[in-house]
């Protein structure tokens, strides 16, 4: 019995030491994160990646002797380029941009469009770097979400148009509702044949537990200053006047949505497409919602030879707790997207 007590005390001491070390480690990590910048901008040369991919395939098709000669030539070329770069650095000469650039951005939107914080940084970087001959391609994927979030995302894209930087939006999967609000800002929209687009409408729903609470003899009091401070509630008893005002607000938001899309794409028959319906890429082209049918890969490959294609991504630095909560939020978003897809389109 005494041995068990000593063993338990020994385990408790070890646990205390481990917990103390963990707490100190967490404090050090949090302190280091506070000192760091809130994020970093990552630039990836996609032209080089595509070129390396082509070279890998070409070399794989050569025989062993030819491969040895190719690798020998590549080493000689790399050595010469390194020597030239070193000489340029010593002389203080910056690399010369020989081709117009294509800046590639990615936006995979959630329901609350929190990704707009990274999009803001990326667009700011592009605006400061871009030259008149450059352009931007946004690879967009979003089923939509809250009005204010996607309204801000659309305003960020508008900054590119205001600076006369050509913007092309590519949609490989879905750009519906708020997602299409973003897409329509572009000078050109390219969608895959079976991408989902449109859904120019507004929806809102809230449950009401008033009858259940009444059955349990639970009273709910709601006091407001202002006739329409609260139209519909979760717990209180909703009135027909409140419902009517709620519908009016939805219709007003829908009208603003339609006006925005019409302003961005003047040739669009807005009354025909602003019904809340969605269409696939080929149908969307017939309706005037998109300009071309194709994938983002096809578009980028067509530009590789004539332009320097670079990816611009702003990576947010997340705290340890944010990583866990962020993962949970992403899981919820994926679940909501699955429900939306099952209810809004047939299963293949």
Please, could you describe this protein's structure?
The protein has 348 residues and is an alpha/beta fold. The chain folds into 2 domains: 101-204 and 271-344, Alpha-Beta Complex (2-enoyl-CoA Hydratase, Chain A, domain 1); 205-270, no CATH class. Helix content is 54%, strand content 16%. The chain contains 12 helices and 9 strands. Helix 4 packs parallel to helix 5 (147-162). The longest helix has 34 residues, at 2-35. The chain is flat and about 85 Å long. The termini are far apart.
Short description:
The protein is of the alpha/beta class.
What tags apply to this protein structure?
12 helices, 348 residues, 2 domains, 9-stranded mixed beta sheet, 9 strands, 2-enoyl-CoA Hydratase, Chain A, domain 1, alpha/beta, disordered C terminus
Which helices and strands occur, and which strands form pairs?
Layout: H1 2-35, E1 39-45, H2 46-60, H3 64-90, E2 101-108, H4 116-129, E3 135-142, H5 147-162, E4 167-176, H6 178-183, E5 188-191, E6 196-198, H7 210-215, H8 240-264, H9 270-273, E7 278-280, H10 281-287, E8 292-293, H11 296-303, E9 308-316, H12 320-344
Oligomer: single chain
Pattern of helices and strands: HEHHEHEHEHEEHHHEHEHEH
* H/I helix tally: 12
Q: Detail the poorly predicted runs.
A: 340-348
What's the pLDDT, averaged over the residues?
Answer: 85
């Amino acid at each position: 019995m005494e041995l068990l007590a000593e063993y338990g005390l020994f385990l408790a001491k070890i646990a205390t030491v481990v917990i103390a070390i963990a707490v100190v480690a967490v404090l050090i990590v949090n302190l280091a994160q506070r000192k760091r910048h809130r994020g970093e901008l990552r630039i990836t040369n996609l032209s080089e990646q595509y070129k390396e991919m082509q070279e890998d395939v070409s070399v794989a098709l050569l025989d062993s002797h030819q491969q040895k000669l190719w690798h020998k030539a590549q080493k000689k070329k790399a050595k010469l380029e390194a020597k030239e770069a070193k000489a340029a650095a010593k002389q203080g000469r910056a690399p010369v941009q020989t081709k117009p650039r294509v800046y590639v951005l990615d936006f995979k939107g959630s329901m609350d469009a929190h990704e707009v914080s990274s999009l803001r940084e990326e667009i700011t970087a592009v605006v400061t770097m871009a030259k008149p001959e450059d352009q931007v391609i946004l690879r967009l994927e979003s089923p939509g979400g809250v009005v204010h979030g996607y309204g801000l995302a659309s305003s960020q894209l508008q900054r590119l148009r205001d600076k006369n930087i050509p913007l092309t939006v590519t949609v490989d999967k879905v750009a519906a509702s708020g997602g299409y609000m973003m897409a329509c800002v572009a000078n050109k929209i390219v969608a895959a044949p079976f991408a989902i687009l449109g859904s120019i409408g507004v929806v809102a729903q809230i449950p009401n537990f008033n009858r259940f609470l009444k059955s349990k003899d639970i009273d709910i009091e709601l006091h407001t200053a202002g006739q329409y401070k609260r139209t519909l509630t979760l717990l209180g008893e909703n009135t027909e006047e409140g419902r009517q005002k709620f519908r009016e607000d939805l219709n007003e938001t829908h009208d603003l949505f339609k006006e925005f899309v019409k302003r961005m794409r003047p040739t669009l028959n807005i009354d025909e497409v602003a019904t809340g319906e969605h269409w696939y890429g080929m149908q969307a082209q017939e309706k005037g919602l998109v300009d071309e049918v194709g994938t983002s890969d096809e578009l980028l490959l067509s530009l590789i030879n004539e332009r320097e294609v670079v990816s611009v991504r702003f990576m947010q630095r997340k705290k340890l707790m944010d990583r866990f909560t962020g993962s949970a939020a992403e899981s919820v978003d994926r679940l909501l997207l699955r429900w939306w897809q099952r209810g809004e389109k047939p299963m293949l």
